[in-house]
Design goal:
The complex is a heterodimer of chains A (488) and B (477). Chain A is α/β, with parallel strands linked by helices and 488 residues long. Chain A contains 16 helices and eleven strands. Chain A has a domain of 272 residues: Amidase signature (AS) enzymes, CATH 3.90.1300. Chain A has an eleven-stranded mixed beta sheet with strand order 1-3-2-4-6-5-10-11-9-7-8, with helices on both faces. Chain B has a nine-stranded mixed beta sheet with strand order 2-6-7-10-1-11-12-13-14. In chain B, strands 5-4-15 form a three-stranded antiparallel beta sheet, with no helix packed on it. A two-stranded antiparallel ribbon of chain B has the order 3-16. Chain B is elongated and about 90 Å long. Classes of the chains: A alpha/beta (488), B alpha+beta (477).
Chain lengths: 488, 477
């Protein structure tokens, strides 16, 4: 077995056992990047020398017995909206084209403490706004299963890098589905934890009340392991939650007997691709056969999730992105006449179309006279959506459904019609609005050979139920090799 | 007959809180450091940084609210006020609009006619200060210092309950005293740790509706506030009398010129797009927290005055002056604690201290001689080591530089000469040299002895005990 085909946990075990080294693994993955990056463009920033230097340092610590964790020595890719000290962090935007942070995100620090080797920063939709990774100012990432298709987004670079084996695992961020949807399109496992589980300190905010960092990995075991490492109570993040139950790997148990799984009828209506539908329902059947109790129910309010999400996320984004003004860091226009002209030109030139669209949308819904009608109303609907989930979780342990209505669309198809692109988030965004954990894992392929994702949603702080259900399904499903092994 | 007008005034008072660290990060709030040395990713608005509330800010805000009879909002939130300006690193200020921490309070003031009146407090909210812009005209550029960015402020918004400059000053002095007693701020107008914006309108006496108001900024002293109120009142009355309308606008007061200028009108008022800051969790004030703050409220002025009356044998007038400044009261109590002579301490504060404050234009909050040194000075006088005029001389130096009076007296050789032989010899010389005065005294002119004492003191360069001179003089004559 090639080193590259190993999962993160397998690789760490092999390094620990002295069968290979962090340096060897890093060299292999750098060679893979060298070979594949031109095709897929997963990264915006790579620092090969720094990666090798880290690998040597980590290897020495592993040999000295100082690093014994389940991820020690494993190379990782970080989404480019997480600050990395001394390494360019652009959010795939021109406006941060020259931005080198002075500190690292808490999640990144947690990984480094566990012996991770940072390879570089992955491409994304600009400021995480988009569902295809096509809004990046640095070019689109291509889906390793078929380079004519998008990898999904906004964590498309991270998902594609895992699928193309250009890293062993990656971090992404999920505001409305930005981990789960690209995981689904790229045939990898992605998880968005309960809001507050992973510190947002150092994550460049898009929609602060919705943003969560999470793992993109080759399987459920890796996913649980990574989440266990990055989850922490951080006093630098006021929204960080102190949890005692972050020993997620304990839930890697093959057992769903008596697990109550609800399938929302609302998730299987108009717009859902037939192939996706049957793959997802087949997965439900598998879980039923393993002893889970499967029931259909009406979740309600599903149609309101999209307008609610785009109101709240855009409002927060319009304010969060105000700091990018050309004064302190980042892009500043060449010629300007006075302060306000400098702001206007720097921001007009520095931000891309989709970002500008959402800033305008957000500024509008917050403006005086519209605040009550849009923003406040959206907050009320958000509370109702949470209530609908609360009612569902009174009956079910896990909610099961598709991740996205279709498999990965072709490049260029989505941007022409932003509304259509927004509608693609219908199954993922309610999870963010309610602060819930959700996991996406492969459950088949369509007739074009593109992966289909299964989404499992849990109640707040019930990641373990998700992990246990996902793990059980994964075992029953059997191997689902990465794109790198299958097609590229 | 000319119409009579009434002035209607409400105040927005910003107070910089005396916390050691900033409102949302651990940076120091110390004044006067080199530019941008007290900054971090949070208070410079770096991407990815997040604010965390300094609990002391909340406690101070609640303490001020309780002391001004406000309702404390048990579920409060921070909101973002969005506007672009380079002194504001995030381009939004974290403030409170929808659910401010305190509401519906008021303080009692004395009016000019000796009556009492309550000035209502609409709300008190917490917010962060901005950085400071320095315009370098030489280089034609602007520089930003973020040391002040994130320094905690409370804004106290009054109801439009004041009717004259005197009432405004009385209200401000009352607020200042309460806040100083709490230790929540030093409230120095000149240094900007207390800033007041004046909202003012005029209306005909008896009118039911308020007139159109203006907001006046840049008021750096009580005197400037009083002048600005007078100036703005006149300006508005002149407009109305001339058949013109008062425009709702923000004006900047130029105290040197005694005039104000429009800064921005209501028409170009910005839409701040306020919304709850999603980076900060709602503030829930628990019963325990509230009780703890209540229990820790200090002794305020009224209670202190009563206690002084009880404990110290000093005149009511002294008590009034001393307790009118927390700093002065602290100085008094600390000195008394050392020397246990309240009357003498009070005399120093009432007499020389007040005189020098006036002469040297020093604010009471800036008094910086230590209780230890004042106690030492009193002891020096008590032991007759120095006489009272030397003591005044020494005190003046203490007032300026807080010198140790014992060391100072020693170094400068100011100690009273207690060598009776030397004194007697000097007096004999004085008697010999002033036969006329001696003659006068012997002829019953008691006053003449004063001249002889003075001459002796002069010859002794002031370092003699006047009582002793008197005694020897009488003996020799």
């Amino acid at each position: 077995m090639s080193l590259l085909d190993m999962t993160a946990v397998e690789l760490a075990a092999a390094i620990k056992a002295g069968k290979t080294t962090a340096v060897e693994a890093t060299k292999e993955v750098l060679a893979q990047i060298e070979a594949k990056e031109q095709l897929y463009h997963c990264y915006v920033t790579l620092d090969k020398e720094a990666a090798l230097a880290q690998a040597e340092a980590v290897q020495a610590k592993i040999e000295a017995g100082e690093l014994t964790g389940p991820l020690a020595g494993v190379p990782v890719a970080i989404k480019d909206n997480m600050c990395t000290e001394g390494m360019l962090t652009t959010c795939s935007s021109k406006i941060l084209g020259n931005f080198v942070p002075t500190f690292s995100a808490e999640a990144v620090l947690n990984l480094q403490k566990a012996g991770a080797i940072i390879l570089g920063k992955t491409n994304m939709d600009e400021f995480a706004m988009g569902s295809t990774t096509e809004t990046s100012a640095y070019g689109e990432t291509k889906n390793p299963w078929n380079p004519e298709h998008v990898p999904g987004g906004s964590s498309g670079g991270s998902a594609a890098a895992v699928a193309a084996e250009e890293c062993f695992y990656a971090l992404g961020s999920d505001t409305g589905g930005s981990i789960r949807q690209p995981a689904s399109f790229c045939g990898v496992v992605g998880m968005k934890p309960t809001y507050g589980t992973v510190s947002r300190y150092g994550l460049i905010a898009y929609g602060s009340s919705l943003d969560q960092i999470g793992p993109l990995a080759k399987d459920v075991t890796d996913c649980a392991t990574i989440l266990e490492v990055i989850a922490s109570h951080d006093t630098k993040d006021s929204t960080s939650v102190e949890r005692q139950d972050t020993d997620f790997t304990k839930a890697l148990v093959e057992d769903v007997k008596g697990m109550r799984i609800g399938i929302p009828n609302d998730y299987f209506g108009e717009g859902l691709d037939e192939e996706v539908k049957s793959a997802v329902l087949q997965a439900a059947k598998v879980l039923g056969e393993k002893g889970a109790i499967i029931e259909y129910f009406d979740l309600s309010l599903v149609d309101y999730a999209i307008p609610t999400y785009y109101t709240i996320a855009a409002a927060e984004a319009s304010s969060n992105l105000e700091r990018f003004d050309g004064i302190k860091y980042g892009y500043r226009t060449e010629d300007y006449a006075g302060l306000h002209n400098m702001y206007k030109k720097s921001r007009s030139e520095g931000f891309g179309e989709e970002v500008k669209r959402r800033i305008m949308l957000g500024s509008f819904v917050l403006s005086s006279g519209y605040y009550d009608a849009y923003y406040l109303k959206a907050l009320r609907v958000k509370a109702l959506i949470k209530k609908a989930f609360d009612e569902a979780f009174a009956k079910y342990d896990v909610i099961l459904g598709p991740v996205a209505p279709t498999t990965a669309p072709k490049l260029g198809e989505s941007l022409a019609d932003p509304i259509q692109m927004y509608l693609g988030d219908i199954y993922t965004i309610a999870v963010n609005l309610a602060g819930l954990p959700g996991i996406s894992l492969p459950c088949g392929k369509d007739s074009k050979g593109l992966p289909i994702g299964l989404q499992l949603i849990g109640d707040c702080f019930q990641e373990k139920k998700l992990i246990q259900t996902a793990y059980t399904y994964e075992k029953a499903r059997g191997e689902f090799p990465m794109a790198a092994k299958e097609v590229c | 007959m000319a119409k009579e007008y009434e002035t209607v005034i409400g105040l927005e008072v910003h107070v910089e809180l005396a916390t050691k660290t900033k409102i949302f990060c651990g940076c120091s709030t110390a004044f006067g450091a080199a530019p941008n040395t007290q900054t971090c990713p949070v208070c410079t608005g770096m991407p990815g940084s997040l604010p965390v509330l300094n609990k002391q800010v909340l406690e101070y805000a609640i303490a001020v609210g309780l002391a001004t009879n406000c309702d404390i909002t048990r579920y409060s939130k921070f909101d973002r006020k969005n506007y672009f300006y380079p002194d504001n690193p995030q381009n939004y200020q974290i403030s409170q609009l929808y659910l401010p921490i305190c509401r519906n309070g008021g303080v009692e003031i004395e009016t000019e006619d000796g009556g009492k009146k309550v000035v209502g407090i609409h709300e008190i909210h917490m917010e962060e200060d901005a950085g400071k812009l320095i315009h370098d005209e030489w280089e034609d550029c602007s520089l930003v210092d973020y040391n002040r960015s994130g320094v905690p402020l409370i804004e106290i918004v009054s109801e439009p309950d004041m009717r004259s400059a005197e009432e405004v000053i009385a209200y401000l002095e009352k607020l200042r005293l309460i806040i100083q007693y709490l230790g929540a701020s030093d409230c120095k107008l000149q240094e900007g740790s207390m800033r007041a914006d004046v909202n003012l309108s005029v209306r005909e006496v008896g009118a039911a509706e308020f007139g159109t108001r203006t907001e006046m900024k840049n008021l750096n002293s009580f005197k400037a506030i009083a002048r600005a109120i007078e100036g703005e009142r006149e300006r508005q009355i002149d407009l109305i009398e001339a058949g013109k309308v008062v425009v709702q606008e923000t004006r900047r007061w130029d105290d040197a010129k005694g005039e104000s200028y429009p800064m921005r009108s209501k028409e170009d008022a910005q839409d701040y797009r306020y919304f709850p800051d999603p980076d900060l969790v709602p503030i829930v004030v628990s019963d325990e927290m509230l009780e703890k703050i209540k229990a820790n409220q200090p002794e305020f002025r009224t209670e202190k005055m009563a206690r002084y009356k009880e404990e110290y044998d000093i005149p009511d007038y002294d008590i009034d002056i001393i307790t009118n400044s927390k700093h002065m009261a602290d100085l008094f109590e600390a000195t008394v604690a050392i020397c246990n002579q309240p009357k003498k301490v009070s005399n120093w504060l009432m007499g020389e201290t007040m005189r020098l404050m006036k002469e040297k234009e020093v604010d009471v909050e800036d008094l910086h001689f230590s209780p230890e040194n004042l106690a030492k000075l009193i002891a020096l006088v008590d032991s007759k080591a120095i006489n009272s005029s030397v003591a005044k001389e020494v005190f003046e130096v203490m007032f300026e530089e807080d010198v140790d009076p014992e060391k100072y007296v020693e170094e400068k050789g100011l100690k009273t000469v207690n060598d009776e032989g030397a004194l007697r010899k000097t007096i004999e010389e004085v008697i010999a040299n002033n036969p006329q005065s001696v003659e006068d005294y012997r002829n019953g002119k008691e006053k003449a002895i004063g001249f002889l004492v003075g001459q002796t003191m002069k010859a002794m360069k002031g370092k003699a005990d006047p009582g002793m001179i008197n005694q020897i003089l009488k003996e020799l004559l």
